[in-house]
Amino acid sequence: MENIKSLNKEIFVDSEEISQIVTRLAERINNDYKDKDPVFVVVLNGAFMFAADLLKQIKVLSKITFIKLASYTSDKSSGTVKQLIGLNENLKGKDVVIIEDIVDTGLTMQSLRKQLLALDVNSLEIAVLMFKPHKFQCNYPIKYIGKEIEDPFIVGYGFDLDGYYRNLPAIYQVKE
Ligand code: PRP
Questions:
Q1: Which CATH class is domain 15-150?
Q2: What backbone phi and psi angles, to 5 degrees, belong to 4?
Q3: How far is it, in rounded angstroms, from Cα 137 to Cα 155?
Q4: Spatial distance between the Cα atoms of 152 and 174, rounded to a whole number of angstroms
Q5: pTM above threshold 0.70
Q6: How far apart are the first and last CA of the chain?
Q7: Which residues lie closer than 8 Å to 49 by C-beta, 6 or more apart?
Q8: What does the pLDDT look like over 96-117, one tens digit per residue?
Q9: Which of 49, 84, 108, 140 to mutate to test the pocket of ligand 1 (most atoms within 8 A of CB)?
Q10: I need a surface site. Which of 117, 147, 152, 163 has the fewest CB within 10 A?
Q11: Enzyme catalytic residues
């Protein structure tokens, strides 16, 4: 707890830049979905703050639903798989936009995409606040990217360290 309290961190993306990023993404989504009836699927926990700010600026009639991903290790060599839990919206035939805080290796999103595509959605796009292109191990498209970053450890604005710091209104880089 003491280490957590005295965490050495410096600002990485301030509130103003976050706000600009979110507004830019919302404008694109409003334009792309103006004649549609999308469902936004928010991936908890990390995306809660980004999703709240983004969705406040969405003008098209839409539904919002929340899911979690539960990790478990499969028997096969595939290692850790993330199972979708908590989906209570019928997505068949819908235009779905996943809202996530970060795509790092991309494996979490790859697994989620597969599970949502299997539900026979009409279309599926991804909106992500932070993307690490150098860590990305997959090859699916990510249509809405807030910011590309290298590999800092970040906290705040939904990003946590052991569950702490998610509430900070800006994003901080943790220093050694
Ligand atoms: C984070 C993030 C993504 C995943 C990205 O989730 O929210 O779901 O890691 O990593 P990947 O691209 O390498 O798969 P985390 O498990 O930290 O949960 P949280 O959202 O509750 O913080």
A1: alpha beta
A2: -65, -40
A3: 23
A4: 7
A5: yes
A6: 17
A7: 157, 158, 166, 167
A8: 999 999 999 999 999 999 999 9
A9: 108
A10: 163
A11: 104
